[in-house]
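3.2 Worked example (two chains)
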Amino acid sequence: MKKTPYTVIGAGHGGKAMAAHLALMEFPTTLYNRTPERVAAIKELGGIELDGGEYGPRGFGRLECVTSNMAEALEKAEMIMVVVPSSAHADIAKAAAPHLRDGQVIVLHPGRTCGTLEFVKVLRENGCTADVTVAEAETFIYASRSDGPAQARIFRIKEAVPLAALPATRTRLVLDRIREAYPQFIDGGNVLQTGLNNMGAIFHPALTLLNAGWIEATHGDYQFYIDGVTPSVARVLEVLDRERVTVAASLGIRARTALEWLKMAYDTDGENLHEAIHNQPGYYGIKAPPTLNHRYIFEDVPMSLVPIASLGQHYGVSVRGMDSIIRLACIVHRTDYWRRGRTVDRLGLDKLSVTELTTYVTEGIMAT
């Protein structure tokens, strides 16, 4: 039986692992990266050597095509896997818009918060009339890294990853198409639900900024979650988490709390967030970022924290904690993340009531 052709957009840690794994599963796989030098070794060898550890996939994943030409990358693809930082989603949508065709499925790995909403808006603004389906994963399915120019390593493959399409009525279509390669994906409700369950928005920026002095003094030479999460820092994380859950509730969504997420992901309990984080053995040994110029701020603030806070402000939820962390990030990085980020205005959602927004994400009908 003919297998579905895949194109993986992005040749970083995640993209290389996904492309190699798809190839080893015998799916015709194309790898795209905008910088030719980044994929020159892969192109020369014709594929990627994958080490999946003791229980994971391993071997040489031979690729059908390695390219920096978007038209060539999308020509044969039926499934398009976007594995780039969320700050690049808009650029990828703009580059892909002229080359997409009816029936193709695009999945953002992951969407962070409002990634699919942004991607669809950019496609529309750039004249894309193809009937494509855009979806997002709540988190990245692999724990992986790049081991060399044409080498990748997978440490773990998650057992269940929520996924949602825009509109949600197309989620089943995406799950049916992707199941042959990834049975781990499950119905994530809608793209607001996957985006508002984004735990990185709560943990990453605040923990980095509240440890700014320690990071700069030690270049990250301490345990990020163990030494960095003191009782006071944990109380700030709890406030941010309550705000996120309240924003979700204002949109009719039951979001998981951080404590629920720790229980689900790691089977870790605690009376409070400080205790639960310190009860998670997997956090021991994880070092802090070596610098404040890190994706935990420059990606997670504008693409995760800003959209949650913006939704809260727009629909009447107090998000003073989130706003304080965003403003600290603006000061530290000397930039305006409110202006650069995924705000309700920039996403074109500012005229929608809660009911109209819900209708849009579930049925794809935008009020005019």
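3.2.1 Second chain
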Amino acid sequence: MLAKEAMFYEQNTPERLKCLLCPHHCRLREGQEGLCRVRVNQEGQLITLNYAEVASLALDPIEKKPLYHFYPGSLILSAGTFGCNLSCAFCQNYSLAHEKPPTKTIAASTLVEIARQVETEGSVGLAFTYNEPSIWYEYVREVAEGLKEHGLQVVLVTNGFIESKPLQEILPFVDAMNIDVKSFNNDFYRQHCRGKLQPVLNTVEKAATATHVEVTTLLIPGENDEAEEISSLARWLASLNKSIPLHLSRYHPAYKFNHSATPVKSLQVARELAQEHLNFVYLGNIPGEGNTTNCLNCGEVLVKRSVYQVEVKTLKDGHCQHCGSKIDYIVTN
């Protein structure tokens, strides 16, 4: 492990530090770790324990993030570490978020070089994903700066639970974000995630003015799938931009939750509700679901999808080949 001083903290007293990376503002005594499990007070310094520690590295379809309006049909190198600053009882990737998997130390410059090498395989850059990338902040930022020097795309797949200052400082190096809005209800965050809704909404609002944003909500039966909540989420997103893609994803029992999997019909109804306000609503974790993207002007299919099989149809050079309209809601080469 490479010991690295963390960014964004202050010393409250000689014996205690206050972390300022996320809204928890953990106050840490000597030897104490934050809620994220990766930031610790060591002799009066806040040290990050996961700097350059890579737990997972793979070449994924970009649609797996999920990003449907960002280089559709491309691949992207994807990296993750361990830890998370939320404690979601339904976590779908708990082996990384809440356990301690084996890791490999990969220097920032080395990861940038790996990302460059897989360009020949169709990768457009690097996604920080699998666990919460914001708690990997120092490493993510260093790698992102290197990636931008070589014209590669930087993606964050994040829960959005981050303070404004660190977010603003890293946004210039980020090309796209998928932000997980777990519920449009603060009680849900408090009861099931040990977090708060408003900081996540703040992140979406700030990021949407600076980079490409898509939003994902995992629908859990009886918890966050009420019609009014879905409609409220969609109305709020539409107030920012009606063309922000919303991914409604199917929940499966995992970690501490044993609720039955979300009925497909519930997801279809939720999509219909959200489509009353948003231009693009997609369903995730449903085999065989088409999730095509149509031109807002003429309705022609721009991108056809079957899970991760993607065919770019009438989208070329940022325009619909059928009607000629400019497609500024999909990022392409």
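3.3 Remarks
The first strand starts at residue 4 and ends at 5.
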